[in-house]
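Objective 1.3, modelling of assemblies. Example input:
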Amino acid sequence: MKALLPLKVFAATIYVLCLGEVFVRLFAPVAIMPRYITGTSYGVRGNIPGSRYKHFTGDVSVEYRINSAGFRSDVEYPLKKPEGACRVAMFGDSFMMGYEANLEDTIPYRLEHAMRESGRPCEVINMAVSGFGTAEMLVALENNGLAYSPDAIVFEFHRTDLDDNVRSGLYDISDGKLRRVRETYLPAVSIQDKLQGFAVYRFLSQYSQLYSAARETLNARAKVALEYLRKADSDAGADEEGTANDSAVEGSDKNYEGRLTALLLVEAAKVASSHGARFYVLDIPGGPDRQSHGHVTSSFDLVDQSIVASLHVVHPEGELDKLLDKGVEAFYHKGPGHFTPSGYHAVAAALFDAMRTADAPPKREETSASAPVDTSISSSPASSFRAPHPARDPSDAGH
Amino acid sequence: MLFNSYTFAMFFAIFSALYWVLARRVRAQNVLIILGSFIFYGWWDVRFLVLVIVSIAADFLFGWGASGERNRTANISKSLAFLWGTSLTVVAIAGREATWILEWLAGYTAVLCLALFVFENKLGQQARRRAYMWASVTSNLGILGFFKYFNFFAGTFEQAASTVGWHLTPVELSIVLPVGISFYTFQTLSYVIDCYRGQQKPAAQLIEFSSFVSFFPQLVAGPIERARNLLPQFFARRTITLDRFSSGVWLFVWGLCKKVVIADNLAPVADMVFASPGSYASTDLLAGLLAFAFQIYCDFSGYSDMARGTARLLGFELSLNFNIPYIARTPSEFWQRWHISLSSWLRDYLYIPLGGNREGRWKSYRNLAITMLLGGLWHGANWTFIAWGAYHGSVLIVYRALGIDAKLAQSSGSKAIDMARDFFAVAVMSVILLFSWLLFRARSIDAVSSFLVGFAHLTHGDFEIWGFILPLIGGLVLVQTAQVWQKRLEIFGAMSGIPALTSRALVVYSIIFLAAQGSRQFIYFDF
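Predicted structure (tokens):
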């Protein structure tokens, strides 16, 4: 009987796991959204080159195809830009990458399509990586994006970036200035690289709701634990300084996140400008809820506005609200809440419109896709996104 | 510290490791229990600990005196040293703003010493025993009354006075209710009364008595233990077998599941409906009421299971506090199944001393009414709790007057008829209980009226709330049906083979994937 014990344990384990799979599918269904992420030579995460995988949410099932350079695309982009061609490099997280959307519905794809339709064809490269914050985008821009000689650079901004930028620890603020403090940020990448070598893992991550639910639960718990430790740390710091006031500490945390993010965006704008590329920030708003009376709400308002006053920020809230007013869903609800195809189209339209009118002085603007076409744009597609003049040091602005 | 928190998980992991390292040294384990219990309780507010310390120090002496023994100098010295040593530590931890506690403690010590002097030197044995017993009642109920009822009675008195033209200056103190004060107060009170009645020998050692009063698994929300059950366990060597360990773990896990999966998921529904009953259809109001009935049951019985499971993992056995109360056919059956430790406390220390049912029908009704009124008041200082107690008292009296318990105890000769009759009795009892939970949960008598008006409209909503609450309640009903079927409450620890694997896995999966977000305090911590 003892000889049968390992077999019994194995059979019991398989039984319990199968039961768990049935349980989760019946009572706590989750989206299956594996991330095919690996480390890059420049120390941050990147999509696994050449990977193909699927996401299954309660709303959609989507296939992702990653090219040999790690971009979501069916096209391979040569490093050297063809003579006279125009290129836009787009950075962001899962929203920019186009989670829960087919390739044809993603923001970069729609933007490229709109430019071609408007008679100014331009390559739009989707350099987004799910989970990225602004800090990782900046590292990816400097180490990879610039090599493609973009004429315009778009950084997506989502409210989760505030937290991500602090958690990554790649940059901090020293004497009011941005400072690089860490060379790499590759959370759990080495473990995932090893796991990707196992066919069983790949199968589970692709098809098991139990695995997805367990991973999400663990992630959430880990984030709570990290947040708890960080708060304990800042409380201790506050105590040492004799300012043991919870709300004050929390408030200063939020201010710090907002300032750090603002400085990162300003730095990215500076990098773009020094390479002659226009720089845009695309605000990804929060979905409608009771507090916002059914309207979307800007994420960018959470960033320190005194620092980013000179940036060209694209606000697609108006476009999204128009959809919602017509009763069209702009966000999915069953999965993690990315845009529907209509939502992605609306955001892409707002971005296209803002880029067309980019000669206007930088200011916050509610854009409209129906705005008249700007005829002042040069006939050369590339020149239309070139920075008209070297930008002044944006970090001088505001403070 | 909540059982359903990471803090408790860490605390218990460290505590139990140290505890079992000291397995051969009972006294050292008891000292560790006191230390651990003080950390556990002090986690809410370290100042509250002083009340537990006072209760321990005073009732240790009162117990000796009430039993007829003389309080020797050694006992008094130990008790006062404990009172002041631990209180000074508490004040040192709490900081400067807690120094007022020392002034209060000095006053209390002076009164205590004076009482001890008078009792020991001026009274005969019988008078001394009685004096010690009443001193314990006065001290415990005085502290409980002050912290729990001062504002309520001051406010009520002021209102009553104003109706006859006396306008008094309102006296309202900002008194915070110390967690679990009603539980440990009743536990020490029953100990002294049992000593007085000769049913309990006084605790020989202060350390064991302190462990008994402060034992953290049941300190803040019961079960309210009788000294004769728990106190001897602190003198015996504790052992743990694989079976006991397994049953303790599964008792805790099932309690945790009831709390975090069922009670905490039902809580927002009940909160929402009770917050503005006027804006819901009758069917939604019923769903909200049902949600609260199962929330409070799973919250409290879940805590009791976790307490018993935790105690068992430390080698102790606490008494049963809940026994599937919602299958009760009559109110008296219900009180033998719901919060058993409080019901039996009220029976033994209130109902029977009042005369019980020994002095004729009408006096037994009176005694029932008084007992249930005070039982309602025990839950909190609010007219809705008094109404709740009065309602339960009335229902008990009606059932007793009609002799329903006796009728249900007789068989009709047909199993089918008996089953149908029992089913009908449970259904009627369920309606009675639902109304009682309305009185219990509503913030005011006006809120009760507004709920009843909503019911009377007989409107129906979109049944969305029902779709949410029924699967949660259904899961519980399934488990309790199995418990009734197997005639066993601890089914998870007792099963084997595939059924054990399946049921345990389902409970664990429920906790992992269906638990409500965030730790929510137990309802009975407020009582």
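Chain A touches chain B through 13 residues (CB under 8 Å).
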